[in-house]
Amino acid sequence: MIVNMKKLVINKLVLSFIAFGLLGTLTGCQKNSGPNSPDFAVWTTYSTAKVIEQTYKNDIFINNGASIDIKMMKDEYESSQLIITSKGRQTFDLIKTELVDPSSGKKIPEDKIEIYMQKYLQIDTNMHNPNSDLFVAGDNIPDMLLPMKYAKAKGENVTKANCNQGLSIEIDSYDLDAGTYEGTFTLKVGERSQNIPVKVTFVSE
User: Fold this and answer.
1) Rounded distance between C-alpha atoms, residue 34 and residue 57, angstroms
2) What angle do CA 47, 34, 95 make, to 5 degrees?
3) Eight-state DSSP code of residue 43
4) Could you say which of 66, 123, 140, 151 would form a disulfide bridge with 157 (CB–CB 3.0 to 4.6 Å)?
5) Nearest CA to 48 among 123, 133, 125, 107?
6) What would the pLDDT profile of 107-138 be if each residue is shown by its tens digit?
7) Residue 44 pairs with which residues in a beta bridge?
8) Count of CB atoms within 10 A of residue 136's CB?
9) CA–CA dist 169, 162 (Å, integer)
């Protein structure tokens, strides 16, 4: 009887470790499958997508490549998000520049462009977001936006190994003329830099 009880306890422990391992596989940050540099991949998607910190759901999101393209009405705010999927812990920064309408020479000044670091919160129960994507217990979902200047000042602009790190890029079109504005931001991750083409289109109606 004692031997059987010991076997039962051992079996339960083994099953618990297996279950824990599977949970870690589902909710932990996974290895990036298609980097466009040896150290990190970068891609953009719509601002309404809730891209979790773990990478195992990356395939369900629309990937617009490594460029930012925002279409918006005049006199409103609109944003896009850029996702860094890094293989290791590395500092990062996205350096903005003014955007220019080549047909008119008019500009979106830098003070009309804000960049935020996404911060994450781990959930402990399954839930749906407004876009009907299912989040499961253990997912780290974007929860707040920290201005990059504060993230850098506090030393928080560091990627986690094999995780997503989101950046939100917000444009303020108030008091600017309709047009198509273009430019290039510079993404720095560790010792590497990558140009990020940016196009912002304002329409008047």
Assistant:
1) 14
2) 50
3) E
4) 151
5) 133
6) 999 999 999 999 999 999 988 766 557 889 99
7) 82
8) 15
9) 23
What Å distances lie between residue 195 and 149, 152, 158, 164, 183, CA to CA? 20, 20, 19, 19, 10
Greatest alpha-carbon span in the chain = 88
Cβ–Cβ under 8 Å, residues 120 and 101? no
SS3 string, 113-128, reads EEEEEEEEEECCCCEE
How far CA 70 is from CA of 100, 147, 199, in Å, comes to 14, 20, 6
The continuous run of DSSP H or E covering 26 comes out as: helix 2-27
The DSSP secondary-structure symbol of 110 reads G
Between the alpha carbon of residue 82 and those of residues 31, 74, 90, 198, the distances in Å are 18, 23, 16, 11
**In the predicted model, is pLDDT for residue 7 greater than 60?**
no
CB 68 within 8 A of CB 80: yes
Bridge partners of residue 180, in order along the sequence: 201
pTM of the model: 0.81
Q: What are phi and psi of 183, to 5 degrees?
A: 180, -170
Short-list 186, 7, 165, CA closest to 89: 165
